Amino acid sequence: MEPTGKTTPLTWRLRVQLDDSPGALARVTIRLAERDCNVLALAVIPVPGGVIDEIVVQVAPGLLPADLVEAIRAEGGRCVGITNADVRDLVDAPTAALRAAGNAVRDPGSVCDALRAVLAADSVVVLPAGGEGDPDDDRPGHHARLLTREGTVVVARRGWSPFTQVELARAAALIDLLSESGTPTPQPTAVLSSDGMALVLRPGGAEDEDAVADLHARCSAGTLFTRYHSGVRTLPRRWLHRLLSPPRGSTVVAQCADRVVALGQLIRTSTPDSAEISLLVEDDWQHRGVGTALLGRLADTARAAGYRELVAWCLPSETGLVRTAARAGLETAVRTEDGLLRVSITPTPAPLRTPSAAPRARIAGTR
Prior knowledge:
Layout: E1 10-17, H1 24-34, E2 38-47, E3 50-59, H2 65-74, E4 78-84, H3 93-106, H4 111-119, E5 123-126, E6 143-147, E7 153-157, H5 165-180, E8 189-192, E9 198-203, H6 209-218, H7 221-228, H8 237-244, E10 249-256, E11 259-268, E12 274-281, H9 290-304, E13 309-314, H10 320-327, E14 332-337, E15 340-345, E16 362-363
Parallel strand pairs: 12-13
Antiparallel strand pairs: 1-3, 1-4, 2-3, 5-7, 6-7, 8-9, 8-16, 9-10, 10-11, 11-12, 13-15, 14-15
Helix pairs in contact: 3-4, 3-5, 4-9
């Protein structure tokens, strides 16, 4: 049954390039008003050779993005980008940048999230060590590489509109500000297990293949079956390569001294805002908070990459991942599908975390 009552109007964010002539912007807004559009915000972005006008507009039900583009073209303009908008887009850019910087200073794990907010990017990810290419980005201006003072490469992507030099300058200024304040930009994270053992969470790479092979050799048959749902004992070299260099995702490893004791994967699915995750923790390191720290790191990465849902497939008797997500402060929803449990995890931490007696890892140097 269709819901009754009024449909909530949609809000769109448009970037428009107009001829540099008096009244051009006014004529566009009048044209939009004739289509029952309500302009909520307006910003002017300098670009080489002119400006781009960014308009946040609320439209009547049934009005399509193509109708908005047609209205702009009718006044001689060109729509260089359009995407869904929400109330956060009503905040002016300097306020958004200051708020993002404050969040990053308070929570160093949210640096990528802060950069994503400043750039209005679809995703911000840290390249693995030695990573150079951006195979998914073949449109000039739609991706940007940012280099931190520590030498870390951060890649931002945005499909709905090319980045402007003003936006990239803001992002670079944010990185410099965080460096000056002592806030670590994206890099390996030191954590302590629940019993005080020091570990490092970092991106996995091809150089970890031997260490990950040893990790699998130390895991019990039960742990491997829980992860792969089959009787895997050893992994072929090509599997190790895909584990550590997935073509559509990223891998995080937990290392203690010279041993990799756990790894987690984040793989993009066919649904744009969803990613599949998986965890493998060595038997001797289970129930010591390592999985909680690893899942929290993957959630941070997913949130910065623009994912709204993390999906894991578990055996029907498997409840460990749900408990791990609860300890990490992440909400879950579970349903049975094709004989497996489909665990849906929201990567944004819940406002109030439920206290738990279970152990968890903590950031090194904190209480």
